[in-house]
Amino acid sequence: KQEVTQIPAALSVPEGENLVLNCSFTDSAIYNLQWFRQDPGKGLTSLLLIQSSQREQTSGRLNASLDKSSGRSTLYIAASQPGDSATYLCAVVFKAAGNKLTFGGGTRVLVKP
Amino acid sequence: DTEVTQTPKHLVMGMTNKKSLKCEQHMGHRAMYWYKQKAKKPPELMFVYSYEKLSINESVPSRFSPECPNSSLLNLHLHALQPEDSALYLCASSQDPSATYEQYFGPGTRLTVT
């Protein structure tokens, strides 16, 4: 069964510290992996999409890596700010599941001023 | 512009009511999706439309009825819902039904069934 896991479920850091968010998945046969941000009661904002042939993607302070062989992705957020406080979701498109996003449970992040 | 819009933002309905949720995108995307999200849980896929045809139904109860009148518009018709159907309903779209494209989400409709 294809599953996506995010540990820890919650994380609190002081402002300015770098954030490291983890995502693991059970099947290395994937099309891509997408990181999202969700503010309370709001929709999902796409942060980064990494195709299966890529090792990393960068956008501003965000950098995401992908290691298919070990079934892991890491989202790095440099120099965190209080505005980065949100839930971060990792989602994978497994080849066996067709065009379907399988989500992890999310990591709730609090950046303290 | 990568915007997906959803209306209404909030909806309260009784168990005997009939209502509809609306989703719109003008990015020329040919795949559209409905997701359901319960509090503190990740989104769960309900339906996928590819080129205006229903391609995936994740065994959703028939009290939820999707419709795709054209390539820009996606509706979700609701009838005889239960209180446990209260959730955030999210719409998404992607350029193509191929699994390699990024999905863009709308702000969601917060549904409360009384």
List the helices and strands and how they pair.
The complex is a heterodimer of chains A (113) and B (114).
Chain A: E1 4-5, E2 10-14, E3 19-25, E4 30-38, E5 44-51, E6 56-59, E7 62-67, E8 72-77, E9 86-94, E10 101-103, E11 107-112
Parallel strand pairs in A: 2-11
Antiparallel strand pairs in A: 1-3, 3-8, 4-5, 4-9, 6-7, 7-8, 9-10, 9-11
Chain B: E1 4-7, E2 10-13, E3 18-25, E4 31-37, E5 44-50, E6 53-57, E7 64-70, E8 73-79, E9 87-94, E10 104-105, E11 109-113
General description of the model:
The complex is a heterodimer of chains A (113) and B (114). Chain A has strands at 4-5, 10-14, 19-25, 30-38, 44-51, 56-59, 62-67, 72-77, 86-94, 101-103, 107-112. Chain A is mostly beta strands. In chain A, strands 2, 4, 5, 9, 10 and 11 form a six-stranded mixed beta sheet that branches. In chain A, strands 1-3-8-7-6 form a five-stranded antiparallel beta sheet, with no helix packed on it. Chain A is globular, with a radius of gyration of 13 Å. The mean pLDDT of chain A is 95. Chain B has 114 residues and is an all-beta fold. Helices cover 0% and strands 56% of the residues of chain B. Chain B is built from no helices and eleven strands. Chain B has strands at 4-7, 10-13, 18-25, 31-37, 44-50, 53-57, 64-70, 73-79, 87-94, 104-105, 109-113. The radius of gyration of chain B is 13 Å and the shape is globular. Classes of the chains: A mainly beta (113), B mainly beta (114). The interface between A and B is medium-sized, with 24 and 28 residues.
Total strands of chain A:
11
**Structural class computed from helices and strand pairing of chain A:** mainly beta
CA radius of gyration of chain A: 13 Å
The fraction of residues assigned to DSSP E strands of chain B is over 45%
Cα-atom radius of gyration of chain B = 13 Å
Number of helical elements of chain A: 0
What is the straight-line distance between the termini of chain B? 37 Å
How is the main sheet of chain A built? 6 strands, mixed
Low-confidence stretches of chain B: none
Helix content of chain B: under 10%
The helix content of chain A is under 10%
Classification by helices and strands of chain B: mainly beta
Query: What is the N-to-C succession of helices and strands of chain A?
Result: EEEEEEEEEEE
Total DSSP helices of chain B: 0
Work out the oligomeric state of the chains in this entry: heterodimer
**Shape assignment of chain B:** globular
Overall average pLDDT of chain A: 95
Largest sheet of chain B: 7 strands, mixed
